[in-house]
Write a structure and sequence with these properties.
This protein has one domain: MetI-like fold (Orthogonal Bundle). 69% of the residues lie in helices and 0% in strands. α11 runs parallel beside α12 and α11 packs antiparallel against α13.
Length: 298
């Protein structure tokens, strides 16, 4: 009788969950492209003190409006040129990445906590609790966001802290709507009544049964709102109501360069392209994480 070799365990049981997850991650083109771009921007922001050729706040009128390296007559002292008061553009671009990432992360965290808490509570309990929270969400949606943000920042005064607080307190509605809908879908699954039947507390059900099954929706909304917060900060800074000079901000750089649009268009195109790449990378990462962590793909 011929003895056959025992096949590997992986052939019998199939690939491990960790290997399947790695395959999904590295096989998702959008997630890989977005992850590389976002990782590069984060790395440049963290290494800004090392990579910056000049002090981003140092002014020199003798070298104002120096050309970037691809223009004739440029100098490597300012690889991406200098602005209207002679500040190095590459240095301000690198430090501006810190501002954009800080605002995006903090706003997404503040608004995410508020909106997720309201949405999950409304979706799980339903009834009058759902009615009250739905009324609050409807009330927030009826308020013109940009007008309120501009009014508040204009009254209180523009600064980094004010922009983060205002955007964080106004951008929670999308979290609440999506989390409420996702929680209602999960609430009707069989494992929720089963957990209630064995005596699990409400807190345990919300944290152990509800949240793991809606976290992919939360990630998508968080990335969208993070990108949205970065764009809104740039818009407020462009209007002079966001981050104030001389703090390096990509929106402020675009605002300061608009007066030279027809003569030095690179003053706007460089921070504009950087803003586009950052927002694109965040959205690609969010979509990729949603696809990888979706319950049907586990």
């Amino acid at each position: 009788m011929e003895l056959r070799p025992i096949p590997p365990v992986e052939e019998i049981l199939g690939p491990s969950p960790g290997r399947l997850l790695r395959r999904r991650i590295f096989g998702h083109t959008g997630l890989m492209i977005g992850g590389i771009l976002l990782s590069a921007i984060i790395l440049f922001a963290l290494l800004a003190p090392v990579l910056s050729p000049q002090d981003p706040y140092s002014q020199s009128l003798t070298t104002r409006l120096s050309k970037p390296f691809w223009h004739a007559g440029s100098t490597w002292k300012h690889p991406l040129g200098s602005d209207h008061v002679g500040r190095d553009y590459l240095s301000r671009l690198l430090y501006g990445a810190q501002i954009s990432l800080l605002i995006g992360f903090c706003v997404a965290l503040i608004s995410g906590v508020i909106g997720t808490a309201l949405g999950v509570v409304a979706g799980y309990f339903g009834g009058r609790v759902d009615m009250v929270i739905t009324f609050i969400i409807t009330l927030r949606l009826s308020i013109p966001f940009v007008l309120v943000a501009v009014a508040v920042v204009g009254i209180v005064g523009g600064s980094l802290k004010v922009v983060i607080i205002v955007l964080g307190l106004l951008l929670w509605n999308r979290y609440a709507v999506v989390m409420r809908s996702a929680t209602q879908q999960v609430r009707n699954q069989d494992y929720i009544p089963a957990a209630e039947a064995v005596g699990c507390s409400t807190t345990r059900i919300l944290l152990s049964e509800i949240m793991p099954n809606i976290v992919n929706n939360l990630v998508v909304v968080a990335t969208l709102e993070m990108a949205n917060a970065i764009l809104l900060e740039a818009a407020l800074s462009f209007l002079g109501l966001g981050v104030q000079p001389p703090t390096p901000s990509w929106g402020l750089m675009i605002s300061e360069g608009k007066d030279f649009l027809f003569f030095e268009p690179w003053l706007i195109s460089i921070p504009g392209i950087a803003l586009f790449i950052l927002v694109l990378a965040i959205n690609l990462v969010g979509d990729g994480i949603r696809d990888v962590t979706a319950p049907e793909n586990r």
